[in-house]
Amino acid sequence: MKIEYARNLPHLQYVGATFFITFCLKGSLPAAVVQELIAERDRAIKLLKEKNAEGFSEEVYKEHKRYFARIERTLDACQYGPDWLKQPSVAELVARRIREANGAGYELLAYCIMSNHVHLVVNTANQLDTLQPDEEVTSANYRQVYQTLKVIKGGSAFEANRLLDRKGAFWQSESYDHYVRDSGELKRILNYTVQNPVKAGLVMDWQDWPFTYLSERV
To answer: Alpha-carbon distance 190 to 53, whole Å?
Structure first.
């Protein structure tokens, strides 16, 4: 079962699924850059439709993965916007908000807080544990990922702005989520998430980065 919702970008929310999510500071991904990446993705999908290739849905899925990867590379380059998350006090309050949602909106598998963006890996199946076998999933008994993110981003933005003595948008309004399809993909994503500070040359071992977390359950 899946639930779709529309914001600035299309999202597909599978009930009880695992998600790899990235959200970033306001200005880290300028609108022109995002629109260029979206146009590139849409051109590729249009070409696939015109070819009417076999395995079309699989190829579209791969194209969405490539789009997500391009977003990641742009953020990792730190070419645009502020780097407020470099400040330990700001990074810690964001980490606290993420941990507070653990067990309610999701099971927290991993996170990594970098200078301008956050990686988050969560499993939403825990919400289904309290449902009866024949109980239908509704908005009253199931919280979608974007709803939990709204709480995390809203609360952390308020605290961070107060700490930084500033006003205005703190986070980019859009978040980027990717549905994790199998255990092999999950393993690769978890490794990518925790290795971000190592790849950036900030630490030699991911466990030395204070704003990285990996659940013992994975």
So the answer is: 32
**pTM over 0.90, yes/no:** no
Count of domains for the chain:
2
Domain that holds residue 42: 29-77
Residue bearing tokens 């470099």? 86
Mean pLDDT of 138-158: 88
DSSP symbol at 123: E
- Tell me, yes or no, whether 170 and 64 share the same domain: no
- With a CB cutoff of 8 Å and minimum separation 6, the contacts of 72 are 22
| DSSP, res 128 | G
CATH at 178:
3.30.70.1290
Pair (178, 161) in one structural domain: yes
* Residue whose tokens read 């999908």: 45
| Helix segments in the chain, DSSP class H | 31-51, 56-76, 88-100, 145-164, 183-199
CA 17/CA 122 separation, integer angstroms: 8
Tokens 């980027």, residue located: 176
